[in-house]
Design brief:
The structure holds 2 protein chains of 2 kinds.
Chain A: H1 2-17, E1 21-26, E2 33-35, H2 36-43, E3 57-61, H3 66-75, H4 80-93, E4 100-102, H5 105-114, E5 118-123, E6 132-138
Parallel strand pairs in A: 2-6, 3-4, 3-5
Antiparallel strand pairs in A: 1-5, 1-6
Chain B: H1 2-53, E1 67-82, E2 85-103, E3 108-119, E4 122-123, E5 136-137, E6 141-154, E7 160-167, E8 200-212, E9 215-224, E10 234-242, E11 248-258, E12 263-275, E13 278-288, E14 295-305, E15 310-321, E16 338-352, E17 355-366, E18 372-373, E19 376-377, E20 380-390
Antiparallel strand pairs in B: 1-2, 1-20, 2-3, 3-6, 4-5, 6-7, 7-8, 8-9, 9-10, 10-11, 11-12, 12-13, 13-14, 14-15, 15-16, 16-17, 17-20, 18-19
The chains are: A alpha/beta, B mainly beta.
Chain lengths: 140, 391
């Protein structure tokens, strides 16, 4: 019984730690959903413009933050080390640099709200979406 | 007595309150000011980021996101020994690379790379008896050159055109030539097999990619200047396919041009499996020649362990280089053909994503008609220790 309780507690704590991520864009952005493939293209700068041709700016979260780890693993399916090595290669080969990194949910929301082509992500618990909207991430 | 004790307790409580109260009243405004200060700092940082993120028509400062400055440095110590090679070691290479890129608009950018190095290369590397001396580290060598420099116009993801010169998109290794990026020292023999592939495109390079469901397709078309017949440009191309999340990337590459002896066609295929933490790279390149075809192939499995701080690797790597000319094999320009296997393994320690220390071992096994020359066994082993950083 004790073992069962211990396992249950472990599971509950794991679930509590599993933080979901919300993808946000500027409120004026006409899109309501984004595919995981598009998200990868935007993050890795394979596409630098929105479908309507407007400039796109991806704001990443700080190195080592839980939000970044979760975003990279759950939505980009890569580890932080894989992504770091990708950007080293890009910088040396094609001069492309990684997206700017921002510290907090509040700051990143504020930046996306002020930049019409902005896109980023916040933790699921964040609630202050002034000037931004949440996109649904689809599988294809 | 109890009443007296109670009185003392009360007095003590009053004294404590008198001491703590001012500090508590002081703490409240200091927390408030701290919170304000954090808000101010966040606003300042936000402003800086906004300024750095705004696209501008011209390059202004290094703080601007539109100008990228980076590079790498690698230093390696190399030890060799063989049946006809004395045990010896030297700081074989020190290479510094600088990269500068600038976005002039969302569609136009400039990319450049400058390399400089100082080394003590191995002379008569393949131990040809025609050489003045046996295989050994000898004189100091240094050099500097522009390795990439092009202007790119991006019409869309599918159509990008570059003018200038850059690393040739032939297979995998030729696109990942930077030393810090290789899993093992100097990368595969494909890069060192003479006359196999022109390493730089020059002139025009057209490239692009397309989504097809969860997969990607891409292409490259370019012109290049053959190293040994520069008066007639060559042409090359590549098509590649990547699965979802780039777990499998594979491609076909080709070049056609002219060298000092004849026209040539070179074909290659490459495969990269990234089943993180396991990675497998394999490549095969063959040049169609009138007589002995130069060709090379390798297989290189690697695995990340210990929270991705350690990268272990092993490899088998073959090269047939009938047109090789080795440094210090007299007379100058004499052919020094070889067929060689390289087998090895090693460990990379990556304390951060941008720093790397490496220890590697390679056994160089000459085979076929080139296994011995005049009874001299050419096999040897090498050990390398190196440190690299990207910034």
């Amino acid at each position: 019984m004790k073992t069962l309780l211990f396992v249950l507690m472990l599971l509950i704590s794991e679930l509590a730690l599993a933080q979901k991520i919300l993808v946000i864009v500027n409120a004026s952005n006409p899109l309501n959903s984004i595919s995981s493939q598009q998200l990868q293209d935007f993050y890795f700068k394979r596409a630098k413009q929105w479908p309507d041709g407007s400039a796109l700016r991806f704001f990443d979260r700080s190195e080592g933050s839980e939000e970044r780890k979760e975003f990279l693993s759950s939505l980009l399916h890569r580890s932080t080390r894989q992504v770091d090595h990708f950007w080293i290669g890009q910088k040396l080969y094609s001069g492309a640099s990684a997206p700017s990194q921002v510290n907090s949910d509040r700051m990143v929301t504020s930046l996306v709200a002020r930049f019409p082509g902005g896109i980023s992500y916040v933790s699921e618990n964040f609630t202050q979406f002034k000037g931004v909207k949440v996109l649904t991430v689809t599988g294809d | 007595m109890p009443e007296l004790s109670l009185g003392i307790y009360r007095l003590a409580l009053i004294a404590l309150s008198l001491i703590l109260l001012p500090s508590l009243t002081l703490a409240a405004p200091s927390l408030e000011s701290l919170s304000k200060r954090i808000d101010e700092l966040e606003k300042q940082q936000e402003q800086l980021l906004l300024e750095a993120s705004e696209p501008r028509p011209q390059v202004n400062s290094f703080l601007n996101d539109n100008l990228t400055f980076g590079g790498f440095y690698e230093s390696a110590f190399y030890v060799v020994e063989g049946s006809d090679t004395d045990l010896q070691g030297a700081n074989a290479s020190n290479t510094l690379g600088f990269n500068l890129a600038a976005d002039f608009s969302p569609k136009i950018r400039f990319v450049s790379q400058f390399l400089t190095g100082l080394s003590f290369p191995v002379m008569n590397q393949h131990n040809d008896p025609k050489g003045a001396a046996t295989r050994e580290f000898k004189t100091l060598d240094f050099g500097a050159n522009v390795s990439q420099g092009y202007v790119e116009y991006s019409s869309s993801r599918a159509v990008n055109i570059q003018g200038g010169m850059g690393y040739v998109p032939f297979g995998y290794a030729f696109q990942q030539r930077e030393l810090v990026q290789f899993v093992r020292r100097n990368g595969p023999q494909i890069l060192r097999t003479t006359n196999l592939v022109a390493p730089l495109w020059n002139g025009v390079h057209l490239h692009g990619s397309f989504d097809q469901g969860k997969n990607d397709w891409g292409y490259n078309l370019y012109s290049f200047t053959p190293l040994f017949y520069p008066k007639q440009p060559g042409a090359g191309g590549r098509i590649w396919w990547a699965s979802e999340d780039e777990r499998v990337v594979t491609g076909l590459s080709a070049q056609t041009g002219k060298n000092e002896y004849e026209s040539f066609e070179t074909f290659g295929t490459d495969l990269r499996l990234d089943l993180h933490p396991f990675i497998l790279k394999a490549e095969y390149i063959r040049q169609m020649a009138k007589e002995d075809d130069p060709w090379s192939a390798y297989l290189e499995p690697s695995v990340f362990i210990y929270q991705e701080e350690i990268l272990l690797y092993a490899f088998g790597d073959y090269s047939n280089s009938p047109q090789n000319k080795s440094v210090a094999v007299a007379p100058s320009g004499t052919l020094d053909p070889y067929k060689k296997w390289e087998f090895g393994a090693g460990i990379n320690w990556l304390p951060t994503s941008f720093t790397r220390f490496r220890l590697g071992f390679t056994y160089h096994d000459y085979v076929g008609t080139t296994a011995t020359i005049d009874g001299i066994n050419r096999d040897y082993y090498s050990l390398n220790v190196s440190a690299g950083v990207a910034f």
